[in-house]
Amino acid sequence: MxxxxxxxxxxxxxxxxxxVIGDVMIDCYITGTVxxxxxxAPVPIVNAQSRNYxxxxxxxxxLNLKSLGATPILCSVIGGDNKAKVFxxxxxxxxxxxxxxxxxxxxxxxxxYRIIGNNAHIxxxxxxxxxxxxxxxxxxxxxxxxxxIEHHPIDAVIFEDYDKGLFSKxxxxxxxxxxxxxxxxxxxxxxxRNFNHYENVNLFKPNLKELAMGMHIEDNVELxxxxxxxxxxxFASEKHIEMVMITMSSKGxxxxxxxxxxxxxxxxxxxxxxxxxxxxxxxxxxxxxxxxTGRSMEETCLASNLAGxxxxxYVGVVPIxxxxxxxxxxKNQN
Length: 334
Description:
Layout: H1 3-11, E1 17-22, E2 24-37, E3 44-57, H2 58-67, E4 71-79, H3 82-93, E5 100-104, E6 111-117, E7 120-127, H4 135-151, E8 156-160, H5 169-181, E9 185-189, E10 203-204, H6 208-214, H7 225-239, E11 243-247, E12 253-257, E13 262-266, H8 279-292, H9 297-311, H10 322-331
Parallel strand pairs: 1-4, 1-8, 2-6, 4-5, 8-9, 9-10, 10-11
Antiparallel strand pairs: 2-3, 6-7, 11-12, 12-13
Protein backbone atom coordinates (compact mmCIF):
# COMPACT_ATOMS: atom_id res chain seq x y z
CA MET A 1 0.00 0.00 0.00
CA UNK A 2 1.19 3.52 -0.79
CA UNK A 3 0.03 6.61 1.05
CA UNK A 4 -2.95 7.08 -1.30
CA UNK A 5 -4.20 3.58 -0.45
CA UNK A 6 -3.78 4.20 3.26
CA UNK A 7 -5.55 7.56 2.95
CA UNK A 8 -8.41 5.74 1.26
CA UNK A 9 -8.67 3.29 4.19
CA UNK A 10 -8.73 6.13 6.72
CA UNK A 11 -11.29 8.09 4.71
CA UNK A 12 -13.90 5.43 5.55
CA UNK A 13 -13.53 6.22 9.26
CA UNK A 14 -15.32 9.53 8.68
CA UNK A 15 -18.55 7.60 8.14
CA UNK A 16 -18.37 5.72 11.46
CA UNK A 17 -20.17 6.78 14.62
CA UNK A 18 -18.90 4.88 17.65
CA UNK A 19 -20.56 4.75 21.05
CA VAL A 20 -17.86 4.53 23.71
CA ILE A 21 -19.26 3.20 26.98
CA GLY A 22 -16.95 3.06 29.95
CA ASP A 23 -15.25 4.51 32.97
CA VAL A 24 -14.01 8.06 32.50
CA MET A 25 -11.39 9.91 34.46
CA ILE A 26 -9.16 12.94 34.55
CA ASP A 27 -5.42 12.48 34.17
CA CYS A 28 -3.66 15.26 36.08
CA TYR A 29 0.07 15.89 35.65
CA ILE A 30 1.75 17.95 38.35
CA THR A 31 5.25 18.81 37.15
CA GLY A 32 8.04 20.48 39.04
CA THR A 33 11.59 20.34 40.27
CA VAL A 34 13.26 18.43 43.09
CA UNK A 35 16.19 19.92 44.99
CA UNK A 36 15.95 18.33 48.42
CA UNK A 37 14.59 15.44 50.46
CA UNK A 38 11.80 15.96 52.95
CA UNK A 39 12.87 16.17 56.61
CA UNK A 40 9.60 14.42 57.49
CA ALA A 41 10.27 11.22 55.49
CA PRO A 42 12.91 10.02 53.02
CA VAL A 43 10.94 11.25 50.00
CA PRO A 44 11.67 14.01 47.46
CA ILE A 45 9.99 17.39 47.75
CA VAL A 46 8.50 18.45 44.41
CA ASN A 47 8.27 22.18 43.88
CA ALA A 48 5.19 22.18 41.63
CA GLN A 49 5.45 24.47 38.61
CA SER A 50 2.61 23.33 36.38
CA ARG A 51 -0.64 21.39 36.59
CA ASN A 52 -2.11 19.90 33.43
CA TYR A 53 -5.47 18.13 33.12
CA UNK A 54 -6.29 15.66 30.34
CA UNK A 55 -9.21 13.37 29.51
CA UNK A 56 -8.54 9.76 30.50
CA UNK A 57 -10.09 6.31 30.43
CA UNK A 58 -13.00 5.93 28.03
CA UNK A 59 -12.76 9.64 27.25
CA UNK A 60 -9.29 9.04 25.81
CA UNK A 61 -10.78 6.34 23.56
CA UNK A 62 -13.26 8.95 22.31
CA LEU A 63 -10.39 11.35 21.64
CA ASN A 64 -8.51 8.69 19.66
CA LEU A 65 -11.58 7.94 17.54
CA LYS A 66 -12.08 11.64 16.87
CA SER A 67 -8.42 12.03 15.89
CA LEU A 68 -8.83 9.16 13.41
CA GLY A 69 -11.82 10.86 11.80
CA ALA A 70 -14.71 8.96 13.36
CA THR A 71 -17.57 10.48 15.35
CA PRO A 72 -17.44 9.33 18.99
CA ILE A 73 -20.32 9.50 21.45
CA LEU A 74 -19.10 9.06 25.02
CA CYS A 75 -21.41 7.48 27.58
CA SER A 76 -20.46 7.22 31.24
CA VAL A 77 -21.29 8.17 34.79
CA ILE A 78 -19.57 11.18 36.28
CA GLY A 79 -19.50 12.49 39.84
CA GLY A 80 -21.44 15.39 41.23
CA ASP A 81 -18.29 17.09 42.55
CA ASN A 82 -16.07 20.03 41.59
CA LYS A 83 -13.87 17.82 39.40
CA ALA A 84 -16.90 17.11 37.19
CA LYS A 85 -16.74 20.76 36.09
CA VAL A 86 -13.11 20.23 35.08
CA PHE A 87 -14.16 17.15 33.09
CA UNK A 88 -16.97 18.99 31.28
CA UNK A 89 -14.59 21.85 30.44
CA UNK A 90 -12.09 19.38 28.99
CA UNK A 91 -14.85 17.80 26.92
CA UNK A 92 -15.79 21.21 25.55
CA UNK A 93 -12.17 22.12 24.83
CA UNK A 94 -11.76 18.84 22.89
CA UNK A 95 -15.07 19.37 21.05
CA UNK A 96 -16.62 16.20 22.41
CA UNK A 97 -20.38 15.98 22.97
CA UNK A 98 -21.40 15.40 26.60
CA UNK A 99 -24.90 14.13 25.73
CA UNK A 100 -24.07 10.66 27.08
CA UNK A 101 -22.65 11.74 30.44
CA UNK A 102 -24.81 10.92 33.45
CA UNK A 103 -24.03 13.06 36.54
CA UNK A 104 -24.64 11.27 39.83
CA UNK A 105 -24.37 13.10 43.11
CA UNK A 106 -22.70 11.03 45.78
CA UNK A 107 -20.20 9.55 43.31
CA UNK A 108 -16.70 10.84 42.81
CA UNK A 109 -15.10 11.85 39.53
CA UNK A 110 -11.95 9.75 39.21
CA UNK A 111 -8.71 11.74 39.07
CA UNK A 112 -5.28 10.17 38.61
CA TYR A 113 -2.57 12.55 39.82
CA ARG A 114 0.89 11.89 38.42
CA ILE A 115 3.64 13.77 40.25
CA ILE A 116 6.69 14.40 38.07
CA GLY A 117 9.89 15.91 39.46
CA ASN A 118 13.03 16.61 37.40
CA ASN A 119 11.38 14.74 34.50
CA ALA A 120 10.99 11.59 36.62
CA HIS A 121 7.62 10.05 37.51
CA ILE A 122 7.78 10.03 41.32
CA UNK A 123 4.35 8.86 42.42
CA UNK A 124 0.75 8.43 41.23
CA UNK A 125 -2.21 9.24 43.45
CA UNK A 126 -5.64 7.82 42.49
CA UNK A 127 -8.50 9.84 43.93
CA UNK A 128 -11.51 7.63 43.28
CA UNK A 129 -14.21 5.28 44.50
CA UNK A 130 -14.83 2.09 42.58
CA UNK A 131 -17.94 0.61 44.17
CA UNK A 132 -20.62 -0.79 41.85
CA UNK A 133 -23.51 1.40 40.78
CA UNK A 134 -26.57 1.21 43.01
CA UNK A 135 -29.70 -0.23 41.43
CA UNK A 136 -31.26 3.17 40.83
CA UNK A 137 -28.02 4.41 39.26
CA UNK A 138 -27.86 1.33 37.03
CA UNK A 139 -31.36 2.01 35.72
CA UNK A 140 -30.45 5.62 34.95
CA UNK A 141 -27.22 4.65 33.19
CA UNK A 142 -28.68 1.74 31.19
CA UNK A 143 -31.64 3.88 30.09
CA UNK A 144 -29.22 6.51 28.81
CA UNK A 145 -27.33 3.88 26.79
CA UNK A 146 -30.59 2.53 25.36
CA UNK A 147 -31.71 6.00 24.28
CA UNK A 148 -28.37 6.75 22.64
CA ILE A 149 -28.45 3.52 20.64
CA GLU A 150 -32.10 4.02 19.74
CA HIS A 151 -31.92 7.67 18.66
CA HIS A 152 -28.40 8.05 17.19
CA PRO A 153 -26.96 6.46 14.01
CA ILE A 154 -24.52 4.23 15.93
CA ASP A 155 -22.30 1.88 13.89
CA ALA A 156 -20.13 0.33 16.59
CA VAL A 157 -19.90 0.11 20.38
CA ILE A 158 -16.74 -0.01 22.49
CA PHE A 159 -16.86 -1.19 26.09
CA GLU A 160 -13.94 0.51 27.83
CA ASP A 161 -13.83 -1.15 31.24
CA TYR A 162 -11.46 0.29 33.85
CA ASP A 163 -12.95 -1.55 36.84
CA LYS A 164 -14.32 1.63 38.43
CA GLY A 165 -17.78 0.21 39.14
CA LEU A 166 -19.67 1.22 36.02
CA PHE A 167 -20.12 -2.31 34.66
CA SER A 168 -21.62 -5.45 36.17
CA LYS A 169 -22.91 -8.62 34.54
CA UNK A 170 -26.51 -7.44 34.38
CA UNK A 171 -25.53 -4.03 32.97
CA UNK A 172 -23.28 -5.66 30.33
CA UNK A 173 -26.01 -8.14 29.35
CA UNK A 174 -28.60 -5.39 28.90
CA UNK A 175 -26.33 -3.19 26.81
CA UNK A 176 -25.26 -6.13 24.64
CA UNK A 177 -28.95 -6.84 24.09
CA UNK A 178 -29.47 -3.30 22.74
CA UNK A 179 -26.38 -3.60 20.51
CA UNK A 180 -27.33 -7.01 19.13
CA UNK A 181 -30.85 -5.80 18.38
CA UNK A 182 -29.33 -3.14 16.12
CA UNK A 183 -26.68 -5.53 14.74
CA UNK A 184 -23.86 -3.25 15.88
CA UNK A 185 -20.15 -4.11 15.84
CA UNK A 186 -19.11 -4.60 19.50
CA UNK A 187 -15.55 -4.32 20.81
CA UNK A 188 -14.43 -4.83 24.41
CA UNK A 189 -11.35 -3.62 26.29
CA UNK A 190 -11.78 -5.64 29.50
CA UNK A 191 -10.51 -5.57 33.06
CA UNK A 192 -10.41 -8.21 35.78
CA ARG A 193 -13.74 -7.81 37.57
CA ASN A 194 -15.97 -8.36 34.52
CA PHE A 195 -13.52 -10.26 32.33
CA ASN A 196 -15.76 -13.30 31.88
CA HIS A 197 -19.03 -11.40 31.54
CA TYR A 198 -18.62 -10.40 27.89
CA GLU A 199 -20.11 -12.88 25.43
CA ASN A 200 -21.17 -12.76 21.77
CA VAL A 201 -18.99 -9.79 20.87
CA ASN A 202 -17.02 -9.11 17.70
CA LEU A 203 -13.69 -8.10 19.24
CA PHE A 204 -12.26 -8.83 22.68
CA LYS A 205 -8.95 -7.09 23.43
CA PRO A 206 -7.22 -8.05 26.68
CA ASN A 207 -3.51 -7.74 27.33
CA LEU A 208 -1.59 -10.94 27.92
CA LYS A 209 -1.66 -10.65 31.72
CA GLU A 210 -5.43 -10.11 31.71
CA LEU A 211 -5.99 -13.10 29.42
CA ALA A 212 -3.83 -15.34 31.62
CA MET A 213 -5.66 -14.21 34.77
CA GLY A 214 -9.05 -14.59 33.11
CA MET A 215 -8.15 -18.14 32.05
CA HIS A 216 -6.75 -18.92 35.54
CA ILE A 217 -3.13 -19.33 34.42
CA GLU A 218 -0.59 -18.95 37.23
CA ASP A 219 1.63 -15.84 37.18
CA ASN A 220 4.89 -17.76 36.93
CA VAL A 221 3.89 -19.69 33.79
CA GLU A 222 5.71 -18.46 30.70
CA LEU A 223 3.36 -18.55 27.71
CA UNK A 224 4.65 -19.29 24.24
CA UNK A 225 2.83 -18.24 21.07
CA UNK A 226 1.23 -21.65 20.68
CA UNK A 227 -0.04 -21.41 24.28
CA UNK A 228 -1.52 -17.97 23.58
CA UNK A 229 -3.14 -19.34 20.44
CA UNK A 230 -4.74 -22.15 22.42
CA UNK A 231 -5.96 -19.80 25.16
CA UNK A 232 -7.46 -17.35 22.67
CA UNK A 233 -9.15 -20.14 20.73
CA UNK A 234 -10.59 -21.71 23.88
CA PHE A 235 -11.79 -18.38 25.24
CA ALA A 236 -13.40 -17.42 21.92
CA SER A 237 -15.18 -20.77 21.77
CA GLU A 238 -16.45 -20.59 25.36
CA LYS A 239 -17.69 -16.99 25.06
CA HIS A 240 -18.82 -17.08 21.41
CA ILE A 241 -16.42 -14.28 20.47
CA GLU A 242 -15.53 -13.64 16.84
CA MET A 243 -12.04 -12.16 17.31
CA VAL A 244 -9.57 -12.01 20.19
CA MET A 245 -6.70 -9.52 20.04
CA ILE A 246 -4.01 -9.84 22.73
CA THR A 247 -1.59 -6.97 23.31
CA MET A 248 1.75 -8.23 24.59
CA SER A 249 3.86 -5.09 25.11
CA SER A 250 7.36 -5.65 23.67
CA LYS A 251 6.22 -8.96 22.13
CA GLY A 252 3.69 -7.27 19.87
CA UNK A 253 0.11 -8.33 19.19
CA UNK A 254 -1.50 -11.76 18.80
CA UNK A 255 -4.81 -12.14 16.98
CA UNK A 256 -7.23 -15.06 16.74
CA UNK A 257 -10.14 -15.12 14.30
CA UNK A 258 -12.71 -17.76 15.28
CA UNK A 259 -14.62 -17.49 12.00
CA UNK A 260 -11.62 -18.60 9.96
CA UNK A 261 -9.83 -20.41 12.81
CA UNK A 262 -6.66 -18.45 12.06
CA UNK A 263 -3.96 -17.10 14.37
CA UNK A 264 -1.60 -14.24 13.57
CA UNK A 265 1.32 -12.65 15.39
CA UNK A 266 2.53 -9.12 14.69
CA UNK A 267 5.94 -8.44 16.35
CA UNK A 268 6.42 -5.11 18.07
CA UNK A 269 8.35 -2.25 16.49
CA UNK A 270 11.28 -0.68 18.33
CA UNK A 271 10.25 2.56 19.99
CA UNK A 272 11.66 5.14 22.37
CA UNK A 273 9.13 4.49 25.13
CA UNK A 274 8.44 7.47 27.40
CA UNK A 275 5.05 6.54 28.87
CA UNK A 276 2.81 3.52 28.25
CA UNK A 277 -0.33 5.06 29.76
CA UNK A 278 -3.18 5.31 27.27
CA UNK A 279 -1.67 2.91 24.72
CA UNK A 280 -4.49 0.40 25.22
CA UNK A 281 -7.05 3.13 24.54
CA UNK A 282 -5.35 3.85 21.23
CA UNK A 283 -5.15 0.19 20.22
CA UNK A 284 -8.85 -0.54 20.82
CA UNK A 285 -9.78 2.61 18.86
CA UNK A 286 -7.65 1.75 15.84
CA UNK A 287 -8.58 -1.94 15.86
CA UNK A 288 -12.31 -1.20 16.06
CA UNK A 289 -12.26 1.18 13.11
CA UNK A 290 -10.10 -1.11 10.97
CA UNK A 291 -12.23 -4.19 11.64
CA UNK A 292 -15.59 -2.41 11.39
CA THR A 293 -14.61 -1.03 7.97
CA GLY A 294 -13.64 -4.51 6.75
CA ARG A 295 -9.85 -4.48 6.95
CA SER A 296 -7.92 -7.73 7.40
CA MET A 297 -6.46 -8.95 10.68
CA GLU A 298 -2.94 -8.38 9.27
CA GLU A 299 -3.72 -4.74 8.44
CA THR A 300 -5.48 -4.29 11.78
CA CYS A 301 -2.58 -5.70 13.79
CA LEU A 302 -0.01 -3.64 11.88
CA ALA A 303 -1.91 -0.38 12.38
CA SER A 304 -2.80 -1.11 16.02
CA ASN A 305 0.76 -2.12 16.87
CA LEU A 306 2.21 1.01 15.29
CA ALA A 307 -0.40 3.27 16.91
CA GLY A 308 0.17 1.85 20.39
CA UNK A 309 3.92 2.32 20.00
CA UNK A 310 3.63 5.86 18.70
CA UNK A 311 1.62 7.17 21.66
CA UNK A 312 4.13 5.57 24.04
CA UNK A 313 6.76 8.00 22.73
CA TYR A 314 4.94 10.89 24.41
CA VAL A 315 4.77 11.71 28.10
CA GLY A 316 1.22 11.46 29.39
CA VAL A 317 -2.01 10.27 27.83
CA VAL A 318 -2.31 11.51 24.24
CA PRO A 319 -4.51 10.42 21.29
CA ILE A 320 -2.93 9.09 18.12
CA UNK A 321 -2.01 11.51 15.34
CA UNK A 322 -3.79 10.19 12.24
CA UNK A 323 -1.33 11.58 9.67
CA UNK A 324 1.66 10.24 11.59
CA UNK A 325 0.06 6.81 11.84
CA UNK A 326 -0.68 6.72 8.12
CA UNK A 327 2.93 7.53 7.30
CA UNK A 328 4.16 4.84 9.68
CA UNK A 329 1.89 2.23 8.09
CA UNK A 330 3.36 2.99 4.65
CA LYS A 331 6.94 2.82 6.01
CA ASN A 332 6.53 -0.42 7.95
CA GLN A 333 4.65 -2.75 5.63
CA ASN A 334 6.22 -6.16 5.20
